[in-house]
């Protein structure tokens, strides 16, 4: 196994292990690891391929728990955002936007921990955050934290939150794939390395599902905030 495949396998395993437990964070965790072996667009392409696989599996498992009304509200703005993000990824290197996202995530976590209370977003704010979530999903596959803001403020339990996150991330993934192909970012050569990495990916889903079943849900809620904070710091300094 050469170093490229090893880094790809480690990044995908760790990223989707976290994704399966929390409902988000796969790209945020995998991306910094993959960047040791490849440029941003190629890393986004690999993450997108594995998001398709995980979405098909996890959506089937969690469908009954998804808040489908909320998912419908987020669909149009998310799809618009994904299209804009992929176009920008094809023609630019907007690293400043990546750092801005990191700063926003950190400020959100600090506010959430300081307030220590639940709140609801208006329809207008749901639209804006979903648009930005789609935008950063198309650009860096890192729109999850923005969706966390919307879904966390609108769902009654960790289980519903997690399942709904699977739903919205599946939506943006299926929208992103044809746009990445059209932009020349996703191509057939990448599928060869994808097949080599599949055993590590399958192991991440199996172990992540097992950990989710045994983990304390209050601890899981705290882990969501911790992963958000760490991902914000990584985006800000990377």
From TrEMBL:
The chain crosses the membrane at residues 7-37, 43-59, 71-89, 125-151, 163-186, 193-213, 219-237. It comes from Aquimarina spongiae. Keywords: Cell membrane, Membrane, Transmembrane, Transmembrane helix, Transport. InterPro entries: TM_pro_TauE-like (IPR002781), TSUP (IPR052017). It is found in: Cell membrane. This is Probable membrane transporter protein. One of its GO terms (cellular component) is plasma membrane. Belongs to the 4-toluene sulfonate uptake permease (TSUP) (TC 2.A.102) family. It is a multi-pass membrane protein.
């Amino acid at each position: 196994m050469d170093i490229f495949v090893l880094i790809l396998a480690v990044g995908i395993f760790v990223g989707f292990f976290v994704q399966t437990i929390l409902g988000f964070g796969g790209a945020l965790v995998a991306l910094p690891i993959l960047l040791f072996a490849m440029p941003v667009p190629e890393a986004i392409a690999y993450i997108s391929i594995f998001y398709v696989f995980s979405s098909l599996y996890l959506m089937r498992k969690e469908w009954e728990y998804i808040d489908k009304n909320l998912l419908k509200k987020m669909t149009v703005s998310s799809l618009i955002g994904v299209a804009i993000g992929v176009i920008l990824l094809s023609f630019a290197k907007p690293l400043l936007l990546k750092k801005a996202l990191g700063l926003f995530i950190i400020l959100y976590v600090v506010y959430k921990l300081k307030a220590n209370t639940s709140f609801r977003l208006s329809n207008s704010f749901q639209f804006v955050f979903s648009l930005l979530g789609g935008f950063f999903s198309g650009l860096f596959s890192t729109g999850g934290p923005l969706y966390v803001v919307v879904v966390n403020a609108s769902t009654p339990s960790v289980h519903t939150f997690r399942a709904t996150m699977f739903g919205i991330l599946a939506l943006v993934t299926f929208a992103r794939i044809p746009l990445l192909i059209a932009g020349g970012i996703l191509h057939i050569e990448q599928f060869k390395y994808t097949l080599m990495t599949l055993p590590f990916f399958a192991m991440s889903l199996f172990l992540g599902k097992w950990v989710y079943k045994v983990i304390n849900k209050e601890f899981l809620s705290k882990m969501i905030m911790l992963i958000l904070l760490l991902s914000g710091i990584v985006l800000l300094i990377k």
